[in-house]
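= Paired protein data =
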Amino acid sequence: MSVMKEKFQEGYGVLFERNWPLWVGALLLALLGTICMAAGRPWGVAGGLRVWSDWLFYAIGLYDKAPTHAFFFSSTAILTWGLLFGALGSALLSRQFAWRTAPPLEVVKGLVGGTLMGVGSAMAGGCNVGGFYTALAAGSVSGFAMMVGLLIGALIGLKYLMWEIEHITTKPPKQRAAKEDGVDWKKVQPWLGAVFFAFLVGWAYWMSFHAYTQQGVLLVATLGIGVVIQRCRFCFVRSFRDPFMTGEAVATRAVAISVILSVLAFFTIKWFRTDWQMIYIYHHWIGGLVGGAIFGIGMLLAGGCGSGSVWRAGEGQFKLILAVITFSMGNSLFKKYVWTREAASAWGDPMFLPEFTGYFWAIMITAAVMLIWWAIMAWNEETDSLTIV
């Protein structure tokens, strides 16, 4: 029994006490994202966040019509709930959940950054996931435009952060001293995490018996995504920021690999399901470009992208909790009053890349763009030619 216990502790340590390599996260995200696609609802974050505020604003009387997506049981909402719950459960299992405060300036940056991400994601048809990662996998031309916009926005946001470091001094927040007596929450957290996941899996199983089979599958898949990105510390901000800040391109390589694998899987599904060809083909490329730039600035200010903000909120980071709230509100309000369906369509029709090139060349083009991005950032990793910090 002592040997079994020792081996269990070793395995547990590998899974929940040490971070997973980013390349593992790249492979697993592609796999889990494909499962979501096969279930009929590709992975996204912004749509679920918008559902939260749509219901809030309807409840307080700001919106006169009830949202079309259910708060809990719609597939759109489940994608975001699953990500948040998966990250929370993973943080508990790894003893990394803690209430983390932030200095006043960081709180303001979280509020502003979240709002900008909400606006940008509304214009681009999604955040870094739905507007870039999943959009590219689905064959949307606007995904390429958002990629360029994210690079532009990341550079602008990084320039501001450099200016802030040089001109503004902030004091770290006061942290409460740990009590010597009472409950040792570090020891309790793994048990809470195990119970939490057991409940969530049971919830998904229950939904499958009540005409919510798709939602049950999506919940399990996005719970997995939440675990993966929390354990890998997988944040798309790093892929756009780090090459210009530290010269590192590890996150860039991971995202590029994951996109290529996702494209192969998504296009295979769309090849056999011709009625699914326009899934996640939402906006014209101009919205992707402009929205991506706005979103890029916001994610640098907030310190997390759409998915990154949600999983960090699941760890108890106060700044990112606020960013998620203002992201949700900003996206809902902007979609309601500014970026309406009519306004978005006025910029042009969405474009499905294989319609212009065929599936083979669409795969080649997407893979080439990802490999070129990877190669440039790998070159910069050796030369620091693009590093501005």
